[in-house]
Design goal:
Its EC number is 3.4.-.-. One of its GO terms (cellular component) is plasma membrane. Involved in the degradation of specific anti-sigma factors. InterPro entries: Peptidase_PrsW_arch/bac (IPR023596), PrsW (IPR026898). This protein is mainly α. The protein has 8 helices and no strands. It has one domain. Helices cover about 85% and strands about 0% of the residues. Helix 2 packs across helix 4. The radius of gyration is 18 Å and the shape is globular.
């Protein structure tokens, strides 16, 4: 394959998934420049994560449990969460629960996209292998982003439970990402029998969270009131 073909195949899944979740915002789509800003932050995040993971692995060893839940998912999801929280959580554009999903997914898919590009060029990837990565690690990062953003939205718009939902917004992505990695590390020959049910479950839960977050939008109530007045 040509360089352009490989690059396109590596980038396309992340962009397509981001467009999908962006367009699922029913009431007030987010400023595209902010979404792309978060996506770019996710891309740039790959470099410090690579350095930190190398250092953590050197200090903590290669135990699958430690690698999966601390070195891989713990570090990656915490840094993604930190970017979303610092950059966008208090921003005026974050004005409905679903917005948390859009921005967290943007960071997650920025990260996954550059990872995919590195994989494509370092492993002489084929279209088939890139397609399998679109269905697994790239969409996996999107699912973890949905979880993170869903609970960030709930924390912002449920003040009396802010701390609880903030904790959920980081703990759930770390757990599910860690479980995903642990399956791949410990079931090398028959991982597909564990991974397919996991991904089906994560997609089903993510779609439910998307619909749930949209249903809680204050803009939905405002639009309904405007229709009644008309």
């Amino acid at each position: 394959m040509s360089v352009l073909s490989v690059l396109t195949a590596a980038i396309a899944p992340g962009v397509a998934l981001l467009a999908y979740f962006y367009l699922k915002d029913r009431y007030d789509t987010e400023p595209i420049h902010l979404v792309m800003k978060l996506f770019l932050f996710g891309v740039l995040l790959v470099f410090p994560v690579m350095v930190l993971q190398r250092a953590f692995a050197h200090g903590l060893g290669d135990d699958p449990l430690i690698f999966s839940f601390i070195i891989s998912s713990g570090l990656e999801e915490f840094l993604k969460w930190f970017i979303v929280y610092i950059v966008i959580y208090q921003h005026a554009s974050f004005d409905e629960p679903y917005d948390g999903i859009v921005y967290a997914v943007a960071v997650s898919l920025g990260f996954a996209t550059l990872e995919n590009v590195f994989y494509a060029f370092l492993n002489s990837a084929t279209i088939t292998s890139l397609l399998s990565r679109a269905l697994l690690p790239v969409s996996g990062h999107a699912m973890f982003g949905v979880m993170m953003g869903y609970y960030l939205g709930k924390s912002k718009f449920t003040p009396d439970r802010k701390t609880r939902y903030l904790a959920f917004s980081i703990l759930f992505p770390i757990f599910w990402h860690g479980l995903y990695d642990y399956i791949l590390l410990t079931t090398k020959s028959n991982w597909v029998w564990f991974m397919i049910p996991l991904m089906v479950f994560l997609w089903a839960r993510s779609i439910w969270k998307v619909n749930r977050a949209n249903s809680k939008s204050p803009l939905r109530v405002m639009q309904a009131e405007d229709q009644v007045k008309i």
